[in-house]
Design a protein that fits this description.
With about 475 residues, this protein is α/β, with parallel strands linked by helices. Helices cover about 35% and strands about 20% of the residues. The strands form six sheets. The chain has a five-stranded mixed sheet with strand order 3-2-5-6-4. A five-stranded parallel sheet has the order 8-11-14-7-15. Strands 1-16 form a two-stranded antiparallel sheet. A hairpin with a 2-residue loop joins strand 12 and strand 13. Helix 2 crosses helix 14, helix 7 crosses helix 8 and helix 15 packs across helix 16. The longest helix is centred in the C-terminal third of the chain and has 26 residues.
Amino acid sequence: MVDKLRECFDEMVVYKDLKKSNFFSALSLPSFLRDWLLKQFEDEEGNYNIEEVSEFIRQYLPKKEQWTSIKNRVIIENERVKFLTKISVDINIKTKEISFSLPDFGLTNKETIIEPDVWYECKDALVNGTETWGVVELGYRAPCEELKILGRIKLTGFTQFCPYTIDLDYYKDARAEFTTKEWMDVILGAMDYNAAGYEEDREKLAMVTRLLPFVEKRLNLIELAPKGTGKSYLFGRVSKYGWLSSGGVMSRAKLFYDISKRSPGLVCGNDFIALDEVQTISFTDIDEMRAAMKGYMESGVFTVGNYEGTADSGIILLGNISKDNMDEYKSMFTELPRAFHESALIDRFHGFIKGWDIPRMHDDLKICGWALNSEYFCTIMHMLRDDASYRAIVDQLVCVPEHSDTRDTEAVKRIATAYLKLLFPHIRSAGQVDIREFQRYCLRPARKMRGIIKRQLGILDIEFKGKDVPAFSVRNLEYED
């Protein structure tokens, strides 16, 4: 399969060696950034020069504690400094002034400026997202007392992180060259996992399930798992389009909209918000947060004060669970914070991931070989979020029983759509779907994931007791006019 992978995806395949402790393991880089470096420096055999990579990292990947040194070079020494980071741009409506921020270094819009000539050179790369990764070049615009101009750090150049054009249609067509089981192994490799290290297909599918909110908008999931199964790594290190929040205090202002700063929260501009170590998270105002989450998770709309916003980010709850409670028929959600003990809020989560189906991380599960570039793969998943054709196929295929609960129907269809995007991206119409594979890999897992939510709702609230997910089935299109 390796030869097929390299033949089909060519430049988008890199050699990853995470099984042994090597050069990259000490850098703690996100997967997408590590694979980007590999793509720049590897030869056709997967070898790279450590000294070259080290020099690039030293020059272009400064640590946060080096920010004072960078400011000294830019402001005092009057140098132009280049480095790789994420940048966010703002356009002032009243003055038309364009500024930027560097979130990783605490540089805010009030301290910066992008002058018109630079803006027109770089705008195409900077306007496509809330935050954009790339190589920034910084200079300094000195203050002028006579004209009452304050000194500011200015952007003098920008090179986008992903200089190549990704052909989504080619990716979809290439999938047709692989069997479903082969493709699942391809996905695991892109996630940095060694498919041969898993004993059962059930374990592989459970791992792939974690990627559902990467490809489907506003997909809300809960995962409870034993420690050491890689939750934090996957949601925090694989994709540059998501946000992992680990414990601590979470406020409505941070998650949705900050009235005092007039700035949108985390749900705006991220594909998903994963609340890790959810047992340790506290909310500044439980009732306020609960009301905001219920409204947003239902419709994608949130209202804070006089501000009404919309977003597409999914909400993911990640928590560890004791071995005694790894049972969907027992009360598992008592381990969640009090904010999530309300059935009306839990009902808005589409599905539950049984994290105990995923083995604890060990060396044999780490990728060592050729695999899809994580940076490429996470961009593909991000692009698939905007493709509505898969939902249309699911709507055409799934038979919904009469009087089915609307939330159950939406949850199952949304999860099935995400599975279809991940596992069968080459499908362009309902007639191309293998009904048995759709039933096995899309509809049945979706119904099981929603079923656990319904069982937990029945434990939380007598109103839901005994209510199961409707018996959705797959329509056989061959026998329909």
